[in-house]
Amino acid sequence: MINKIIKLKKIIKYLSLHNKEDLYFFKIKYLGKKGILNSLFKDFKKIHSKYEKKKIGKILNELKKNILEKINNNKKINKSNNTDINFNTDITLPGKKINYGSIHPISIIEKKILKIFNNIGFNFISGQEIEDDWHNFTALNFEKDHPSRDMQDTFFFKKNNSFLLRTHTSSVQIRYMKKNTPPIRIISSGKVYRNETISAKSNCMFHQIEGLCVDKKISFLDLKKNIEYFIKNLFGNKKIRIRPSYFPFTEPSLEIDVLLGKKKKNHIKMTKGTGWLEIMGCGMVDPNVLKNVNIDPNIYSGYAFGLGIERIAILYYEIDDIRMFLENDLRFLKQFNFLNY
Q1: Among the residues of 91-149, which ranges form H helices?
Q2: Considering only CA atoms, which of 252, 186, 183 is closest in space to residue 220?
Q3: How many CB atoms lie within 10 A of CB 174?
Q4: For the chain, how are helix, strand and coil distributed in percent, rounded to 5?
Q5: Neighbour-count burial for 282-307, b at 16+ CB within 10 Å, e otherwise
Q6: What is the reported pTM?
Q7: Can you tell me the mean pLDDT for 22-46?
Q8: Residue 122 above 70 pLDDT?
Q9: Which three-class secondary structure state does DSSP give residue 186?
Q10: Three-class SS of residue 100?
Q11: Mean per-residue pLDDT for 11-15?
């Protein structure tokens, strides 16, 4: 024990403390409850020989004195150094739990969809949210008296309705086709705005993804194969059905439904008892749209498709209220972490 104390005295004598942190850990190591000095005094109490006790007690007190002197001599460090160390902190306590952020479910679905179409050659492009009438309506074959031009559907900026918040991302495709010649294979996504009543099924702002393919000899079969590829990669082997529909910018126009069935209550609610949920619209690009962007419809043809990301997210995560995506409720959002993508 004597040799151990002598060795410690030498260590302390030549030990350098450079800052508050060094001083703090020095105190913990030698003067703490579980420190070296306390441990030595416990061993000292077990000695029965009075001669040994007297001899060891002397050098043990010298060690304690050396430790205290070392601390006192370094008081200047304690005052001058800017390192912020709280000497009342118990460093043996467990650290605070770090709450990791998560990717928003809309972003997760958007990235999944873009990745699927990127794998078959679609390139992502983006565009402006404030549009003019020509790019948002006229170039897409909307007649002047079409219902979508009514104030009930569109947020206009000026009295003459010359500028508006885009109602779909198709305007991005028009701007791209004006500046680029076929072959074209693009996909765009972003926010769109419509003057609708907010409810569990609709909102005045939502997210949309639209794709466009224009080239020589593009047929309806190309569209059908790509739609089937997309649904299989996102939802698995779900049954789909194709229904005729109407969109001003495609001819023929179609809507795609996915079979959910009627086994679950929320499926019955989402499909209004039919078991089928409409997830996207599509069709062959109307020749008038190609003419409006100076692409010859006698040489080129194409197809386009569009889908609402919220609608896909509702189906993918089986959520029955679209408003939950924008309420910023952490109890809802924390369920979607980085592992989901």
Answers
A1: 105-118, 133-136
A2: 252
A3: 21
A4: 45, 20, 35
A5: bbbbbbebbebbebeeeebbbbbbbb
A6: 0.67
A7: 83
A8: yes
A9: strand
A10: coil
A11: 81
